[in-house]
Each structure stands twice: as structure tokens, then as C-alpha cells.
Automatic annotation (TrEMBL):
Lyase is among the record's keywords: yes
The UniProt record lists the keyword Lipoprotein: no
Metabolic or biological pathway: Lipid metabolism; fatty acid beta-oxidation
PANTHER family for the chain: TRIFUNCTIONAL ENZYME SUBUNIT ALPHA, TRIFUNCTIONAL ENZYME SUBUNIT ALPHA, MITOCHONDRIAL
Family to which this protein belongs: In the central section; belongs to the 3-hydroxyacyl-CoA dehydrogenase family.
Domain 3-hydroxyacyl-CoA dehydrogenase NAD binding: 326-505
Keywords: Fatty acid metabolism, Lipid degradation, Lipid metabolism, Lyase, Multifunctional enzyme, NAD, Oxidoreductase
Boundaries of every 3-hydroxyacyl-CoA dehydrogenase C-terminal domain copy: 509-588
Protein name: 3-hydroxyacyl-CoA dehydrogenase NAD-binding domain-containing protein
Stored InterPro entries: 3-OHacyl-CoA_DH_NAD-bd, 3HC_DH_C, 6-PGluconate_DH-like_C_sf, ClpP/crotonase-like_dom_sf, Enoyl-CoA_hydra/iso, FA_oxidation_alpha_subunit, NAD(P)-bd_dom_sf
Organism: Micromonospora reichwaldensis
Catalytic reaction list: a (3S)-3-hydroxyacyl-CoA + NAD(+) = a 3-oxoacyl-CoA + NADH + H(+)
């Protein structure tokens, strides 16, 4: 074990106690995983934790128990391997050893002659879920908030038996969904009911008395009063499912995520190989991936999302924040309505919308009510909460309703003159200390506030669509925004459960500026004569969440053209204006239909006679991103490159295997070739030099 020493490991102890269960002639052995911290620091396994579990299993079996059960501390079962220790592994042999250690310890539960149970009381992810899969039986709490095998999301594979046990328990279609599809869908979690229906759990129990009911249920199994039946796994479809999955990966990722392909190979092995052969293959795959650049980028991205996002760089002292007891929203369109629902749900304070006429106001409030009704019908909200939200959200054509609001946000047409007019009118109505927030995607906060009596209370509060899904919030400080306003904005962002990044008042801020430069480069290639399909597929090797033209359609050609115009005015040497994009915007036609380029849109284009190859388009786009990021850092738009990456991950959905974008630009040599320097030091999101 000395080779696996992890000096920084927070050891998860396996605490053993004997439990007398009614109806059994001898005690049961209950092993509780607990690292000594509350639920904000979940249990995980490093070498020390695995050793503790091994010792607890030995002691449990020595006592000749009626059964052995493993559970977790409150709200947490176990979230898997201690991934922070992976970069400390010195060589491939150490990676193999950590894989083999986990397999050896967990297999003791699988191979035990004494019945073994997992009482999954809380978050169970990665190696934690794999531990549960090794047990003969599993109970699951209906209150579990996180249930997944997320390894592919980070650049790994389930390496402690998951790829071999899960498909042979629930079948290959469902296992492929859990191991590959869900991680690639922004790390989608399983709901407890869904996991039980799949067969991952044998019984779903209420959280209030979960442990007591689990012990009773386990005793019933041991006494033979409860029979667990599991459907036979259909192996005839195995090859077909994996063939389709591989085709899907090729179409979406084009080889960009090695872990996903490794996971497919392991799932293929699970069909016929014995367990020892399959787990040995997991060890080899794990050892390969631990020393990949994609994993290092994934771990870097994970750290950004888990740590930096919770402690925003440059945010003022939270003690300066003012209380917010009422929110006003200027506008009642789709974005404004989404904001109204979000503020009401998270802040639990009155939210009032205004618009130009009663019909628009009614439509906005109606949207909120419809969304609440949908949440209730799908079981995502109880009727009591729904009734409260109905009462919190209201609308009016009279802006006088904002007089007692503490926080007012506008979501009106993206035009500086319109927004300035809104604030000039509102400043005469709202309280002197009320925060005035704008959801502008590209306009200057400073210019918007310059004619106000109190410009210091205006702040950018830029959400990303869909508001309920994307976690990023760009908080923009104008030249005269004061610390109290900024602190209040960050406090509200935290209440909204958004990850806030402090951004200076620069055109289009971070995400929109980079995506506009990126799309502008691709469209410049189209303008030059590059076929649409070539330009659209040129970035495929990066494995981005969507191709450029699909992204353009999501943003909206008219919006993209407008933002591009704003940036062209600010930086005419780097941001061009594409007349072809204007033609598409004016046409109102979709540029992509059923993942295919619309031929009618293609006919609108007027192009040159200097087409580029896909490789040239890709390199131009990467070069442009590298140049723009360096300029943004030099301008102080954000504190560090890490904030750029955090914004691209959380606001644009760019994948973890890229680390956002700067680690990829570093490891491909683009950063140094274009700017003369790396964005990050060697080893920060890559293998050491």
C-alpha cells in the first residue's frame, strides 16, 4: 500500500456496528461510510478509504452476521473515487494498482456467502454506485438527489466494476444510457424512481424512516419472506445496441472523447467475458485514461465548476449586500417570464412584471402559471408550493408597482436607447437604494447608466437561455457600479442557484464575445466560398455540443447579427459584418432542418471563389479564439483564464474534455503560436511538461 499513499486524502471511514433486527436470530452487520464532515463534503474513496472498508468487511464477516449492509452518512452514500488524488499517481502501474484495489475490496461483497445489501440513503455516484452494484441487494431512498455513473463526463470510465455489472443487471440499452449517454448530456442524473424502474434498486423506500425500513426489508429477504425477482437480460440485442451507440458517438463526438469509446469497448466485453476478465479490462482502460490530456482537462473543469464557481473571483464582501424582499421585472416576454418564475421559486418573494399593455402582461403571467401547472403535473412541485408561487407572481401596466421593489431587472428590446429610456423612467419611481439590473447580452452598462442620477446602482445581470437550465450568470460591473450593488447582485445570484462570474463592462462580455468571434470566423469562410457543410463540420474534432449552424439557429440569426454589429462597432478589425448572415436573418427561415442544412437558405448566399478546407476553417476559428481570449485577459474583462473557461463550460455548454477552451488551445500549441504564451501553466489542466 505504500505505493498508493495519498497524503492529502480525506479518509472515508467504514464504521461497523452490530444491529439487532426483529425476526432474526443473530445481529446484522451495518457498515456506515463517513468521512467526518457534513453533507457538503461527500464521502469518497482513496486508498485509505478502501483499506478501511476492507477491514470493516473482514470484521463484519468474522462475527457471523445474519447479513452485511453498507450505508452512508446523512444525505450521502458515496460519490466514488477521490479524483483529486488521480493527478498524484506517478505512473501507469500505480493507476493499475488503485483500480485493482477497488475491485478486490468491492468483490468481497459480491462473492460473500453471507447476504450483502446496499442501503443507498443519499448521493451515490461513480465508485459509490459501483460499490452498491456489488452487493446482492439494494434499497434506495426516494430522497436521493444524485445518482449516476458520471466518469465519461470527466474523461474516465467506471473503473470498479460498473461496466461489467450494470449491463448484466439492467440490460445493455439502459446501461449504455447510464454509462455513456447521461454523462454526455451535461452529466444528467438519474431520479430514484427511474433507477428503481430500471432495476438498479430492488426497492424504493421513503426517506423519513429509510434505514429502519431497509433493515426490515433486508430481514424479510434473509427469512425468505421477500423474494427479489429480476428479469433475464436479453443478450440478443447487445451487439446492435452498441453498434448504434458507436454510430451516434461518431456523429456527435468524432472521436473527441476517448473515454466514451473505451466505455463502449468495456460494455462489449461485459456480454460474454467472465467477471475477472472484464474488471481486468477496466483496470487497463483506467490506467490509459488517467494519463490522458482529456482527463486532466476534465479534472480542471470539474474543479472550476465545483470550487471557483462557488467563490467568484473579485466579488465584494457579501456583508455589503442589501436584502431583497420584492423583485420587479420590466417586460413580460419569454425571457422576462422565465426570470419571473426563477426569482419567485428561488427567492420566495413577490415578483411583479410590467409591459406596455395588459395583453402582454397577461401573457407573461399566464406563461408562469402554465409552467407551474406543468411542474405539478409531472410531480416536480407539490400543490402547496404551486399555490404560493401563484400568489407571488403578478403583473401590471403601471410601473408604479416597482416603488417598493429592492431589485428591478429589465428584459426589454436589445437597444441602448430603449434601455436608457426605461431606466430614466424607473429612477423616478424606485427607492434610492434599489438595484437596477439589466439582462443585456452585449450593450454597455456604463453607457446605459451614464445619464442617471445614481449610476452606481446599475449592474449587468446576464442570464443564458434557457434560464432554468444554464447555470452561468455574468455579473457585469459598470465604471460607476458600487460595491453594495455588486454584492447584492452576487447574493441574489447565489439565491437563484446560479454560478456567477464577475465581468468588466466590455462589449458582449465573455460568452457572447467569444461565440460571436467563433461564429464570425466560420461565416467568413462561408462568405469566401466554403460550402456550408464543410464550414459546419470543420469543428467536429473538438466534440462541441453542437455544430456552428445549429448554434446559430439556437441563438437566432437576427440576434447573432445584432450582437455581431455591436462588436464590429467596437472592434472592426476582428469582428466583421456578414451580409450573408443578414440575408438569413431577414429571410426568417431556419438554417438547419432535422440536422440538415436548409437548401432554401443555401440559395440565399452570395459567396466568393476562395473556399477553405475544413482544416483551415478549424484552425482559423481556434486562432481567433486564442487571440480574443488573450486580448480579453489583457483588457481585464475577467480576472484569469479560469473564468473564461468557467463561462464557456457553464454558459455555452462547452465540454469538460476541452477544459472549457484554454487547455485545448494550450495543448494543441495554438496559444503559443498565436499569442506567444500559454494561458495556463503546464500541469494545471494538462500533463506535467
Amino acid at each position: 500500500m505504500s505505493a498508493l499513499a495519498a497524503p492529502n486524502e480525506v479518509v472515508t471511514r467504514a464504521l461497523l456496528r452490530q444491529v439487532n433486527v426483529p425476526g432474526l436470530d443473530r445481529p446484522a452487520a451495518l457498515i456506515t461510510l463517513d468521512n467526518g464532515f457534513d453533507h457538503t463534503k461527500p464521502n469518497s474513496f482513496g486508498p485509505g478509504g478502501l483499506t478501511s472498508l476492507d477491514e470493516a468487511i473482514t470484521a463484519a464477516l468474522a462475527a457471523n452476521p445474519a447479513f452485511v449492509a453498507v450505508t452512508g452518512k446523512p444525505y450521502v452514500f458515496c460519490v466514488g473515487a477521490d479524483i483529486t488524488s488521480l493527478p498524484q499517481l506517478a505512473d501507469r502501474e500505480q493507476a493499475l494498482e488503485i483500480g485493482r484495489l477497488g475491485h478486490r475490496v468491492f468483490a468481497r461483497l459480491k462473492d460473500s456467502e453471507v447476504p450483502t445489501f446496499a442501503f443507498v440513503n443519499g448521493a451515490a455516484m461513480g465508485g459509490g454506485l459501483e460499490l452498491a452494484l456489488h452487493c446482492h441487494y439494494r434499497t434506495l431512498s426516494g430522497g436521493v438527489a444524485a445518482l449516476a455513473l458520471p466518469e465519461v463526463f470527466l474523461g474516465l470510465v467506471p473503473g470498479w466494476g460498473g461496466t461489467q455489472l450494470l449491463p448484466n443487471l439492467i440490460g445493455i440499452p439502459a446501461a449504455t444510457q447510464v454509462i455513456i449517454q447521461n454523462p454526455l448530456m451535461q452529466n444528467k442524473m438519474l431520479k430514484p424512481k427511474q433507477a428503481a424502474e430500471m432495476g438498479i434498486a430492488d426497492v424504493l423506500l421513503e426517506p423519513a424512516d429509510f434505514l429502519e425500513r431497509s433493515l426490515e426489508w433486508a430481514a424479510g429477504v434473509v427469512r425468505g419472506e421477500v423474494t427479489v425477482t429480476r428479469p433475464e437480460v436479453d443478450k440478443d440485442m447487445w451487439a446492435g445496441v452498441l453498434y448504434f451507440a458507436r454510430q451516434t458517438l461518431d456523429q456527435r463526438l468524432h472521436g473527441a472523447v476517448p473515454a466514451a469509446y473505451k466505455a463502449l469497448d468495456l460494455l462489449e466485453t461485459a456480454k460474454d467475458a467472465d467477471f475477472a476478465t472484464g474488471t481486468a479490462a477496466e483496470d487497463e482502460a483506467l490506467a490509459d485514461l488517467v494519463f490522458s490530456e482529456e482527463l486532466r482537462s476534465g479534472l480542471y473543469a470539474f474543479d472550476l465548476a465545483q470550487r471557483r464557481a462557488k467563490r467568484p473571483a473579485g466579488a465584494p464582501d457579501k456583508g455589503l449586500a442589501r436584502p431583497v424582499t420584492k423583485v420587479g421585472i420590466v417586460g413580460a416576454g419569454l425571457m422576462a417570464s422565465q426570470l419571473a418564475l426563477l426569482f419567485a421559486r428561488r427567492l420566495q418573494v413577490p415578483v411583479v412584471m410590467t409591459d406596455l399593455d395588459q395583453a402582454r402582461v397577461d401573457k407573461g403571467v399566464g406563461y408562469v402559471h402554465t409552467q407551474i401547472e406543468k411542474a405539478v403535473s409531472k410531480g416536480r412541485m407539490d400543490k402547496g408550493t404551486a399555490a404560493k408561487l401563484y400568489g407571488l407572481v403578478s403583473g401590471s401596466v403601471d410601473k408604479g408597482v416597482f416603488a417598493d421593489a429592492d431589485f428591478v431587472i429589465e428584459a426589454v428590446f436589445e437597444d441602448l436607447a430603449v434601455k436608457k429610456q426605461v431606466w430614466a423612467e424607473l429612477e423616478k419611481i424606485v427607492k434610492p437604494e434599489a438595484v437596477l439590473a439589466t439582462n443585456t447580452s452585449s450593450l454597455s452598462i456604463t453607457a446605459m447608466a451614464e445619464e442617471l442620477e445614481h449610476p452606481e446602482r446599475v449592474v449587468g445581470f446576464h442570464f443564458f437561455n434557457p434560464v432554468a437550465v444554464l447555470p452561468l450568470l455574468e455579473i457585469v460591473r459598470g465604471e460607476r457600479t458600487d460595491d453594495a450593488t455588486l454584492a447584492t447582485a452576487f447574493a441574489v445570484g447565489k439565491q437563484l442557484k446560479k454560478s456567477s462570474v464577475l465581468v468588466s463592462d466590455a462589449p458582449a462580455f465573455v460568452v457572447n464575445r467569444l461565440l460571436t468571434r467563433f461564429l464570425g470566423t466560420v461565416f467568413a469562410a462561408v462568405d469566401a466560398g466554403t460550402p456550408l457543410d464543410v464550414a459546419n463540420s470543420a469543428l467536429d474534432p473538438l466534440g462541441l455540443p453542437m455544430r456552428p449552424l445549429a448554434l446559430l439557429q439556437l441563438v437566432g440569426p437576427a440576434v447573432a447579427y445584432h450582437v455581431g454589429g455591436t462588436l464590429h462597432a467596437a472592434f472592426p478589425d476582428r469582428f466583421g459584418v456578414s451580409e450573408n448572415l443578414k440575408r438569413i436573418a431577414d429571410s426568417g427561415q431556419p438554417i438547419v432542418v432535422d440536422d440538415q442544412i436548409n437548401d432554401e437558405v443555401a440559395k440565399l448566399l452570395v459567396v466568393g471563389d476562395q473556399p477553405l478546407t475544413a482544416e483551415q476553417v478549424r484552425q482559423n476559428a481556434l486562432d481567433a479564439l486564442a487571440q480574443e481570449i488573450r486580448l480579453m485577459l489583457d483588457e481585464g474583462v475577467v480576472a484569469e483564464a479560469q473564468d473564461i473557461d468557467l463561462c464557456m463550460i457553464l454558459g455555452a455548454g462547452w465540454p469538460f474534455h476541452l477544459g472549457g477552451i484554454t487547455p485545448y488551445l494550450d495543448r494543441t500549441g495554438t496559444s503559443e503560436r498565436v499569442t506567444g504564451q500559454r494561458f495556463l501553466p503546464h500541469g494545471a489542466a494538462s500533463l506535467p511538461a
